[in-house]
């Protein structure tokens, strides 16, 4: 994994020194209500994901990750992200998504990326659409609520290489 430089952010591979900050951000209401509780081995618990810490002015301000579908007939990557609410509204998420998308499309040769926020996560959807993601459709009862009490819809968005802004 390499370091990726955006306009504002630097994406660096997650290391143990980042975990305390990432967990602190994960405990904020805004992140916990979307991501739920992190397990004891998180963020090193899923070998199928590649995780980057989002650095802004040298400080850990979030996490962006991706997983890849390797089957050549369906090859694509799926992205997920959370950003410290203390820096919401400053373009940090948009820059992190755009930076990772460029890497996945241009360096790793993916032709398509997907992201699947909760359908009611208006701010996240606005961020992804600003980068060039397009709405594909609603996935009904797609994801368990963070508190485990029920299910909510997800919105599938995708981005083709030509769509990246």
UniProtKB/TrEMBL annotation:
<keyword id="KW-0808">Transferase</keyword>
<protein>
    <submittedName>
        <fullName>GNAT family N-acetyltransferase</fullName>
    </submittedName>
</protein>
<dbReference type="GO" id="GO:0016747">
    <property type="term" value="F:acyltransferase activity, transferring groups other than amino-acyl groups"/>
</dbReference>
<keyword id="KW-0012">Acyltransferase</keyword>
<dbReference type="InterPro" id="IPR050832">
    <property type="entry name" value="Bact_Acetyltransf"/>
</dbReference>
<feature type="domain" description="N-acetyltransferase">
    <location>
        <begin position="9"/>
        <end position="158"/>
    </location>
</feature>
<dbReference type="InterPro" id="IPR016181">
    <property type="entry name" value="Acyl_CoA_acyltransferase"/>
</dbReference>
<dbReference type="Pfam" id="PF00583">
    <property type="entry name" value="Acetyltransf_1"/>
</dbReference>
<dbReference type="InterPro" id="IPR000182">
    <property type="entry name" value="GNAT_dom"/>
</dbReference>
């Amino acid at each position: 994994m390499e370091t990726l430089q955006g306009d504002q952010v630097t994406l660096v591979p997650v290391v143990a020194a980042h975990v305390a900050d990432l967990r602190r951000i994960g405990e904020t209401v805004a992140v916990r209500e979307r991501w739920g509780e992190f397990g004891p081995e998180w963020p090193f618990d899923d070998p199928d994901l590649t995780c980057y810490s989002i650095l802004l002015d040298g400080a850990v301000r979030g996490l962006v990750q991706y997983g890849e579908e390797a089957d050549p007939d369906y090859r694509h990557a799926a992205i997920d992200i959370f950003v410290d609410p203390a820096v919401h509204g400053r373009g940090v998420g948009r820059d992190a998504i755009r930076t990772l998308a460029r890497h996945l499309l241009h360096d790793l040769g993916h032709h398509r990326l997907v992201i699947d926020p909760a359908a009611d996560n208006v701010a996240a959807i606005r961020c992804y659409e600003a980068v060039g993601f397009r709405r594909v459709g609603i996935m009904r009862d797609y994801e368990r609520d963070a508190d485990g009490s029920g299910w909510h819809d997800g919105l599938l968005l995708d981005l083709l290489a030509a769509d990246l802004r």
